[in-house]
């Protein structure tokens, strides 16, 4: 059984709060006063057209993109204030999985998953290896520990990337289009891991076009367009009875 921090088993408390988030690139306003809360153990799914600001919002949540204004609060602490060392510590609490896998090709799977543990958390080689094997087992890849990325399918590489993020014991997991670079037959294995994480109480904010997964697994669905949150609700509300015309128009296009 995978080991998760006890706090992740609780619900009803905000784990991630985005307050009046703004982002501009030169004169282009990409995010406009975004407010969003994600509770402990909740899976919030963000949908919307390309260029709506979804991925930018996600990248602002650990300051890979520097917000122009607003606040990002993780487990009650504002990561927009404090020192650079404070930011480094808080980033360890926010795991991120990208569209690309970002594995080191010259390192084995086990070394990819232990590296950040040893560097950032100062775990011993033995501690890091034990945690890595635990998380690789969680994503169904313990038997690939000594393989190299080039020997894995895209779906397997993405599952290694998820294991690497989980090994740092994050409080929140951010997924930015985690399946969009995968062949269709490989998507299911990654979504199965994400569904399992939810069942174990992991807090997740997911940007993806996997509408079927959102219908089945999400607690809430957020529709973004033009740098704002247009509408949010349960999957039944958003997919079954959206209130806003922009939401209806988007869903009518992606459902065909």
Total beta strands: 10
Mean pLDDT across every amino acid position: 91
| Class per helix and strand makeup | alpha/beta
| CA distance, first residue to last residue | 40 Å
Query: Major sheet: size, sense and barrel closure?
Result: 6 strands, mixed
Low-pLDDT runs of 5+ residues are: 1-12
**Largest sheet: spatial strand order:** 6-7-8-3-9-10
Q: What is Rg?
A: 18 Å
Strand content: 15-25%
H/E topology pattern = EEEHEEHEHHHEHEHEEHH
Work out the helicity level: 25-40%
Count of separate DSSP helical elements = 9
Which descriptor suits the 3D outline? globular
Quick synopsis:
The protein has 256 residues and is an alpha/beta fold. It has helices spanning 54-60, 84-91, 109-120, 125-138, 154-166, 184-199, 211-217, 235-240, 245-254; strands at residues 14-25, 28-39, 43-47, 69-74, 77-78, 94-97, 172-176, 203-207, 220-225, 228-233.
